[in-house]
Amino acid sequence: MDFINRIKAWLQRPRGDHQRQPHKSIIGSRLNFLLWAVGILLLLLAARLFNLQVLNSGTYKAEVKRSDTSVQTNNVQRGMIYDSRGKVMVGNEAHQAITYTKGPNVSSDDIYKIANRLGRYVSVPDNRLTKRNEMDYYLADKSNLKEVEKHVHVSKDSTDTNATYNAALNYLAKHPSIYRLTASQKNKAKIYAAMSGAYSLSTTYIKESGVTSRELAQVGEHLNEMPGVKIGKSWSRNYPQGKDIQSLTGTVTTTKTGLPSDSVNSLLSQGYSRNDSVGRSYLEKEYQATLAGSKSQTEVTTSGGNVTKEVTKYAGKKGSNLVLSINSDLQKQVQSIIEKNYSSAGTSYSTGCYAVVMNPHTGAILAMAGIDRNPDTGKITADQIGAINHPIVMGSVVKGATIMGGLMSGVISPTNNTLTDQPIRLAGTSVKASWFNKSGGASMAISAPVALEVSSNSYMMQLAMKEAGFKYSPGEPLTMSTKAFTKLRYYFNMFGLGQKTGIDLPGEVSGFTGPSTRSHVGSALDLSYGNYDAYTVIQLAQYMSTIANGGYRMKPYVVQQIRGTNKNGELGKVEYTASPQVQQVIPASKEDFDVVHQGLYLVTHGSSPYVTAKKLGDAKPSISGKTGTAETFYKKTPTSTISFAGYSPSNNPQVVVALAIPDVTNENGGANINMARQIFEAYWKTVKSPKNYE
Fold it and tell me: Domain Penicillin-binding protein transpeptidase: where (predicted)?
């Protein structure tokens, strides 16, 4: 009441000229002024509330939520890769690690202080340190920055908010002696760079592996002095069956290398951070989403820029595991077999060797081996993936498809398929002949099976001319239509030669197709016996599998299952199982296939003096197949490619082996046949007992 009485007294007190005005008039004017002022203020307050609660309520609510609560994500253990029997081929090795989670509103000065303190306890020799990292660390010291700024000049009209800092960097770049760091400072600069590069509430590794017990103890003792620093775990890939398998399974990036440059934008859009570890190549890349799993999610509450509460909302899910169709023991043996036999082929100019072991009924790849060789240096490296991306002119090994094309086109039949092996003499071209009949002294009538047995080039060329509607006459010009290319490739493609097989690995190529113009029509004859187009070894395996199983072109695959992980760490629930996929049913009769089956059996068991793979005749279980030799060149040096594709047992095929060795100088050394025999033996010893197939 005393306060109100004072107000009344103030209102009633006369002021200057107002002493001459009536008392009530003075009070009324003052009350009106106050009422108007209060009214205007209330209107302004109402307008402000309307703006906050109606017009921009969503924006401010989102801002409050963003400021107060955020979600922090962390990586989980990557899925592993197993062989067909559950042996780990690619596993994970756990490491003690030092991590840093960047809080919201953390300044460069804060990071500088934390990095300097952490640098006292942890050494990070493996991290890269650039000149820019060194300069940033030097300038993070405010006294250094002020000193450098004295020497730089920035235009007052500059709109670049970082103009002064950039000028300071340019100055240091021109005067490197100014920021020369000690070894201790360089160590701290590496830590500072790693911390500065982290996103808000994202976790980065300061030291992923090799953390010593002393470092762990010292960091643990001072964690409360270094906000965001924690002791955690990291994982790296290990290879219990040997690192050679990396050229098939691929590799993963590290936090130092970050996301691959060729897919960084795509991965960022999927929620990955720039320093996440992801599949870099092959299976690791092809099945990245499966192997990566789901990141853990922690709800982080902040106040005034500090983390006040952390609640785990989702613990994350370890990546799913791949179970391959590959038998790791067979894989190692096949790799060893080709490496041991390779040099006997004369490899001065050779670019490598590749082999595939395949189940002809399902398309499952049981082994995929390979080596790459640099002819200039002689260096040899494992290269299993070369079986799908290295096109090779294979030679006579493809003649089974040529015979099948002749049967399906009707130019020969199972009961009428005898032609005369003779040199093919055409006007304007050099003589083309079989390897055993170059002069014509061994000309003879042969059937289709015998043509395979003795590897007759002449027989195949005559089929090509018949399919193109060209009637051969010695000495006449080759006026054959270019449709000869189309016809031959049409049938080759049916069996998988010259097109991608669709195997579940990235980077497969379709091969190489030679020119098919009128001026190249003579090359169609070379194509018929495998000395023109180039194919991959996986195509060779698919082609022979299609013949072995009686006409079903099966899609090859290496991932047999995708499975989760049990609590005990072992393989868990099956999430996916590969089903055999028939890509094409060959429109040919059993009688047609019998002709080729007979010929492939004669290649290894025939009695002709020209039989090409007699060394395989005593193998148990029996082997049917086809050898190949192509005339090739390494640069300008004449070389040969030797190859083989076949199946076993001959009367009930269970396995197909295909291999090729390009650019050798000893085509008669039998390296291809020796490799094939040893691979078949390894299969029967390692994968399946030959007892029921003798």
Answer: 354-680
